[in-house]
Write a structure and sequence with these properties.
The complex is a heterodimer of chains A (534) and B (98).
Chain A (H helix, E strand, L loop, with lengths): L7 E4 L1 E4 L2 E7 L13 H25 L2 H14 L2 H12 L4 H18 L3 H5 L1 H16 L13 E4 L4 H5 L8 E4 L7 H9 L3 E3 L13 E5 L4 E4 L3 H25 L3 E2 L5 E8 L16 E4 L13 H14 L5 E4 L27 H6 L1 H15 L4 E5 L5 H21 L7 E6 L2 H5 L8 E4 L1 H9 L17 H17 L2 E4 L10 H6 L4 E4 L4 H10 L2
Parallel strand pairs in A: 3-4, 4-5, 5-6, 10-11, 10-17, 11-12, 12-13, 13-14, 14-15, 15-16, 16-17
Antiparallel strand pairs in A: 1-8, 2-6, 3-7, 7-8, 9-10
Helix pairs in contact in A: 1-2, 1-6, 3-4, 4-6, 9-18, 10-12, 12-13
Chain B lengths: L10 E6 L8 H12 L4 E6 L6 E2 L3 H7 L6 E7 L3 H13 L5
Helix pairs in contact in B: 1-2, 1-3
The chains are: A alpha/beta (534), B alpha+beta (98).
């Protein structure tokens, strides 16, 4: 970095709104690019790296103070932890390179620590990240310098996995700028839910920036300005000041009930993508959880057992303090493949085995999820919704599994309740026939509905403008679904990105929508928009 | 999780955690170090938890999040099962030698 560095504007796509100024940071620069040798060779490479890391840590323990030594001792114990190393060896036996196998297992563990509700435990995630990098460095034959993440740093990278995203402390960092990735990716959903500014799809690569260089991130317009001029910085600071005032007002508004200008009460729920967000969220801001995604459970190739799922669902129900919680069964497939779970090699995954279709051909997975849901339903107001349905017999098949699970739990004498069972309305077929379904509630999944109605994907810039939420055909299907719910006397909510967009609030209120389920960071803004409309 | 066959004869015990921050890194290291000195399979769980975890895995012990004032349940199976359960109860009772 030199002072001669001129301002460079890197244009991308806005993925999560917000502004930041801070030093550029390139995350975990350690590459995982080994070409897998034989299984013995990879196993030996792992062992050699673990041994080397252990030696390095002992050397550090001798030179450091007592507290540092205790933290380092914990790391050395982890290097001999059979429960931790076992899964790595298993992946290596499956033909994976040692570095990838190690990273996959550690990334999953780190995400687990971050996700826990225990502040102390989530703070230990950085110990695991250090250990992960130390062993990777040993494998790659490069020396590790402990990288401190500078305050307000802007993370610049090609791409970022959801686990890696969750491994950072976002209360300290400024935002993310990625060269790959799309606004519909899961990491973008995570960023929006947490209000972390994010730009994606920039041209080029991280080498266009130098670590430590100052950058101004504009998540509203999708621009990263590297080495900004004095004028650019001043203008950016002004906007940050104004946005901070708006954020403060929105945070206050979020705690009040949503009422339209004409006095009609509207329910505003939140979407939960990963339980780690609950730590920083007060249930007081919402009328419940309108959508809990459960794909996070299966991230990193994990197949969570009933006990683990039960613990997590219980945690969400307890967090909600009596407010209703809707949990969606696994919605994998389409743009959300899960290795070992979803069907590979489909010519058109968006029209293939996804959502409930997958659950129905993998009943062993579905039943475990339903058992955990029924047990958690005994502890509070829990509802279950099934995604990607086209005809009522699919719901009937899901209900039959639910009945079987309820009977099973009753026989075993396990405490449980039969949750309400509703559907996601995200295919035109479901929207047009909504009144014919025996659903206990409807939740409109506008993201997929828009794509299926307009035959245009939002992740393809060439056609993204056609995937328009205001397309009259889309609005008509939403209107019909709301009407069907009203005639059957069941609740209709909308949980897609449309509900989180303040400028679409008046449109949805006009269509008769009474329940919005939005990204947690958008609650205040949506409530403002409701207050200014009809 | 190390759910063992149901016919294993477990030696069981329990002790209350007095450390104010619960079973955090330092106590977790002490528990695993002690458990590894014995050949028996050793598992622990916090009060009200369903899953037993391997007491020789510092990672698993940390993730238990066993809290202050919680009862730590211990079970072991093997030649020195009784000794390891007694040793772990003593360690918890001594508040992890802090």
């Amino acid at each position: 970095m030199t002072e001669a560095n001129a301002e460079r504007v890197l244009e991308g796509v806005a993925a999560s709104s917000g502004l930041a100024i801070g030093p550029v940071m390139h995350p975990s620069a350690v590459a995982t690019d080994r070409i897998a040798g034989g299984i013995d060779e990879e196993a030996a490479a792992l062992q050699a790296a673990l041994d080397q890391a252990c030696e390095e840590l002992f050397a550090l323990m001798d030179s450091g103070d007592k507290l540092a030594a205790e933290i380092l001792e914990f790391q050395t114990m982890l290097l001999e932890d059979e429960d931790l190393i076992g899964p790595v060896s298993l992946r290596i036996s499956g033909g994976e390179a040692a570095d990838r196998a190690w990273r996959a297992v550690l990334d999953a563990e780190i995400a687990d620590y971050v996700r826990s509700e225990d502040e102390y435990l989530s703070a230990r995630a950085s110990d695991l990240a250090d250990l992960r990098d130390r062993v990777l460095c040993a494998m790659a034959g490069v020396s590790i310098e402990i990288k401190d993440t500078p305050e307000a740093a802007i993370l610049v990278a090609d791409d970022l996995t959801p686990s890696a995203f969750l491994g950072f402390d976002w209360s300290r960092l400024g935002g993310v700028a990625l060269f790959g990735c799309s606004p519909t990716s899961h990491v973008a959903i995570l960023a929006r839910a947490r209000g972390v500014p994010m730009v994606v799809g920039m041209r080029g690569g991280p080498e266009l920036t130098a670590a430590g260089e100052t950058a101004a991130l504009d998540g509203d317009n999708g621009v990263l300005t590297v080495a900004p001029s004095r004028e650019t910085l001043a203008a950016h600071r002004l906007r940050i000041g104004a946005a901070a005032e708006q954020d403060a007002a929105a945070a206050k508004r979020a705690l009040q009930p949503a009422v339209t200008a004409s006095g009609r009460a509207v329910l505003v729920m939140v979407n939960i993508d990963d339980p780690s967000i609950l730590d920083s969220l007060s249930p007081e801001i919402c009328d419940g959880v309108g959508l809990t995604r459960t794909e996070f459970l299966f991230r990193d190739g994990d197949t969570p057992d009933e006990a683990r799922q039960f613990d997590i669902y219980t945690r969400i129900v307890r967090w909600a303090e009596g407010r209703p919680v809707t949990i969606r069964t696994l919605d994998a497939g389409g743009d959300k493949p899960i290795p070992g779970v979803t069907v590979d090699g489909e010519s058109n995954p968006f029209l293939g085995v996804r959502g409930l279709r997958l659950s129905l051909i993998r009943p062993e997975l579905f039943r475990v999820q339903l058992r955990a849901l029924c047990r958690a339903a005994a502890l509070g107001s829990l509802k279950v919704m099934v995604p990607m349905v086209t005809t009522p017999h699919e719901l009937a098949a899901a209900a039959a599994h639910l009945d079987a699970v309820v009977a099973e739990l009753a026989t075993e004498g396990v405490e449980h309740a039969r949750p309400a069972l509703g559907i996601m309305v995200e295919t035109p077929a479901a929207a047009l026939t909504a009144a014919d379904w025996e659903a206990d509630f409807y939740s409109i999944g506008s993201n997929d509905l828009i794509q299926y109605v307009t035959a245009a994907g939002r992740d393809n810039p060439e056609v993204a403008s056609l995937a328009d939420p205001r397309n009259p055909a889309v609005l008509e299907l939403i209107r019909r679904t709301i009407e069907a719910g009203r005639s059957r006397g069941v609740e209709v909510s909308l949980c897609g990105d449309m509900a989180s967009a303040p400028d679409l609030v008046p449109v949805l209120l006009d269509l008769g929508l009474e329940t919005f389920s939005v990204a947690p960071a958008q609650v205040g803004r949506v409530k403002f928009a409701i207050g200014e409309s009809g | 999780m190390t759910d063992a066959a149901p016919n294993i004869a477990w030696v069981t015990g329990a002790a209350v955690i007095r450390d104010e921050t619960g079973l955090h890194a330092r106590p977790a290291v002490k528990v695993t170090k002690l458990a590894r000195r014995f050949s028996s399979a050793v598992e622990i769980r916090g009060e009200g938890q369903e899953r037993w975890v391997n007491a020789k895995s510092p990672n698993a012990v940390m993730k238990l999040r066993a809290a202050h004032e919680a009862r730590l349940e211990i079970r072991a199976a093997g030649a020195d099962a009784g000794a390891v359960v007694a040793a772990l109860i003593a360690l918890v009772d001594r508040n992890f030698d802090d």
